[in-house]
Specification:
Layout lengths: L1 H4 L2 H29 L16 H21 L5 H20 L4 H14 L4 H4 L2 H7 L6 H7 L1 H9 L16 H5 L1 H6 L3 H25 L4 H9 L2 H8 L4 H16 L3 H14 L4 H17 L3 H30 L20 H11 L6 H5 L1 H7 L11 H5 L2 H5 L5 H13 L10 H16 L4 H26 L2 H4 L5 H8 L3 H10 L5 E5 L11 E2 L10 H5 L4 H10 L2 E7 H11 L4 H13 E7 L4 E9 L2
Parallel strand pairs: 1-2, 1-3
Antiparallel strand pairs: 3-5, 4-5
Helix pairs in contact: 2-3, 2-4, 2-5, 2-12, 7-14, 12-13, 12-14, 12-15, 12-25, 13-25, 14-26, 15-16, 16-18, 17-24, 24-25
């Protein structure tokens, strides 16, 4: 209510319009490529199959990624290039609509109409996630990596070497694709990401109706959207959500016997998140077994070779970039086998990364407890799914459900994945498929008591999601008017006030060094940054200097003019990850203390320091 009645809603309208326009841009680009390569709309598109609208969006995202990959590689990423990217589709759209043969026009219009023509409930259910998606981004991973990486390239005019920011040297197709969203405004990427989540969930709904003949669409939609994990992934900009969209489309087109188009989506999903190698391997293994039973093995093996080549081809640009900047095409893995260009990545850093990633299974007891752990524990940030699966999936045995391929895929993905990752949100696609089987089980049960139980669990999930997100974002502070937008950003992200000062007060184009802080999203200057897992960004300057004068000279030689310093984060990261030796840590504090403070906030331990001068 406060959101609707307060002035904050005016703060949302323009960014939401921009996000919707960006989705349209992707759809136009995707439709062009889909129609060029002959993927015409299905005869049954009135059911809203994802092969039309959703596939075009996905292809548009792939085009966007590779376009900005090339632009960034050649260091020509500028405002003019971004404006061209946004405006060009309007001319393409006029061409499509005026095309005499009308095939492209029909493809564009009919698929759009088929996807959008659905009951109002299927849109209204997303109002709750929209409330949190409309907040200024503040989640750590988003500000540091998923939005921080496109911001890094945007502020530096393209790809740059990031020897102490390892996330920028890994699997970042989604982050590259977010460059135009980041350019459009601070709130646009979060709203655009939410729209991608809406497309994913509605596509899953359409897939279930098409493939499983689900009748009670609202039951499936409630099952997916009420999951706290779903709301978390829709509202926090993380790559788990788009990777699930591409896996869904990969599975869909594979089952429709469009295996090479499927390979395109599978390959891109791995470029978004390397852990998608696991669901891909599980899916291909299950289909391998199926092909043996149906005596189609020779044909399947031939297709498998081509599928593998397509997936490798999709990943080649990413490996080329990683090799150029790190000397390792699959950085950060197997770093000891390559002539590593990154001096500050070693076995110690990789061990810390592995320890933080963790795994869920440590004993057979953990495996036995897995269903209960999934239902009642938070496994990784936002990794709450609730007890609905535990309560309803056993009814598939009573129903004697025979369409078990995707159930096996989902369960095996979770079981195998738990040996590598504690965080279950990585396998979000598995929970989407399990939700479909919950809907199948629900439709097979006629007892009213089970209907009541279903809605009780849905209510429990929604309350859990509300509690989780209020704990994360404290939205009432903004929606109640207690805090302005700028105050809310500082409240949820203390370093923001220093970044806002830098954006306003220091000369345009000044290069900034972020020390003790990886969250860079709001910074509008060229900058250098280190991740929490890397050695401190100061390490190379501290190793070769012994006096403040030498330290300042080394910074200036690298073009560094200002430092944004968060002392609390700096000390916490040192304690957790030993990013400097004890001697280097003391030296860093002593040297930074001498620099002139042009901005200071003692309460939050945040400073802006000028490199070219010393305090008196």
């Amino acid at each position: 209510l406060n959101l609707v009645t307060s002035s904050y809603i005016l703060h949302i309208i323009l960014p939401l319009a921009k996000a919707l326009y960006l989705v349209l841009v992707l759809y136009i680009y995707g439709s062009i490529f889909m129609s060029l390569f002959g993927h015409k709309q299905n005869k049954n598109m009135e059911t809203g199959q994802p092969t039309g609208f959703s596939s075009a969006i996905a292809v548009g995202l792939i085009f966007t990624t590779f376009f900005f990959y090339l632009v960034s590689l050649f260091k020509i990423l500028s405002h003019w290039v971004l404006i061209l990217f946004y405006l060009a589709p309007l001319f393409f759209l006029l061409f499509i609509l005026k095309n005499k043969d009308r095939k492209s026009s029909l493809y564009f219009i009919e698929n759009l109409r088929a996807f959008l023509k659905r009951p109002a409930f299927e849109y209204l259910i997303f109002i709750f996630p929209l409330i949190y998606a409309s907040l200024p981004p503040s989640f750590y991973d988003s500000l540091a990596y998923h939005l921080g990486i496109p911001n890094l390239y945007l502020q530096n005019g393209g790809f740059i070497a990031t020897p102490q920011f390892f996330y920028a040297n890994t699997f970042i197709y989604y982050e590259i694709s977010l460059i135009p969203a980041v350019f459009a405004g601070d709130l646009v990427p979060r709203l655009f990401h939410m729209l991608m989540g809406v497309i994913l969930i509605l596509s899953a709904l359409d897939f279930a109706v098409d493939h499983f003949k689900i009748n009670k669409r609202h039951i499936l939609l409630l099952t997916i959207v009420s999951m706290p994990m779903s709301i978390f992934l829709i509202t926090a900009v993380k790559n788990d959500l788009p990777s699930a969209l591409f896996v869904l489309l990969g599975v869909y087109h594979f089952l429709k016997d469009k295996k090479y188009l499927s390979a395109l989506f599978w390959g891109f999903s791995i470029g978004i998140k390397y852990t998608n190698c696991i669901p891909l391997a599980v899916f291909l293994l299950l289909y391998f077994i199926k092909s043996i039973r149906e005596k189609h093995l020779p044909t399947y093996l031939k297709q498998l070779v081509i599928i593998g080549l397509i997936i490798i081809a999709i990943l080649v640009p990413l490996t080329v970039k990683n090799y150029m900047f790190t000397g390792n095409p699959i950085f950060p893995f197997f770093h000891h086998y390559f002539d590593n260009k990154i001096q500050y990545w070693d076995a110690t850093r990789f061990t810390l990364l592995e320890q933080d990633a963790k795994k869920l299974f440590h004993s057979f007891t953990d495996v036995l407890k897995f269903p209960l752990s999934l239902s009642f524990e938070e496994l990784g940030s936002g990794g709450i799914v609730g007890p609905l699966f535990l309560m309803f999936l056993p009814f598939l045995v009573i129903k004697r459900e025979k369409r078990l391929l995707l159930l096996g895929f989902a369960l095996l993905t979770l079981l195998v994945g738990a040996n590598f990752k504690l965080s279950t949100r990585v396998w979000y696609i598995a929970f989407i498929f399990l939700s479909i089987y919950v809907a199948i089980a629900y439709e097979s049960i006629s007892q009213k008591v089970m209907t009541v139980l279903f809605f009780i669990i849905i209510g429990f999930n929604v309350l859990t999601a509300f509690g989780l997100h209020e704990n994360l974002y404290r939205s009432y502070n903004l929606f109640s008017g207690r805090l302005s937008v700028e105050e809310y950003k500082s409240f949820t992200f203390p370093t923001y006030q220093a970044i806002a000062f830098a954006n306003k007060e220091i000369p345009p184009g000044s290069c900034v060094l972020l020390v003790g802080e990886a969250r860079n999203y709001y910074l509008k200057h060229p900058f250098r940054v280190a991740s929490g897992y890397d050695y401190s960004i100061l390490k190379k300057y501290l190793e070769k200097t012994s006096t403040v004068e030498e330290f300042i000279a080394a910074l200036k030689a690298d073009g560094i003019e200002y430092i944004i310093f968060n002392i609390f984060e700096f000390n916490q990261l040192q304690k957790s990850y030993q990013r400097l030796t004890e001697e280097e840590h003391k030296k860093a504090l002593a040297f930074l203390k001498v620099l002139t403070q042009v901005f200071r906030d003692e309460k939050d331990g945040v400073y802006v320091l000028q490199v070219g001068s010393r305090s008196s």
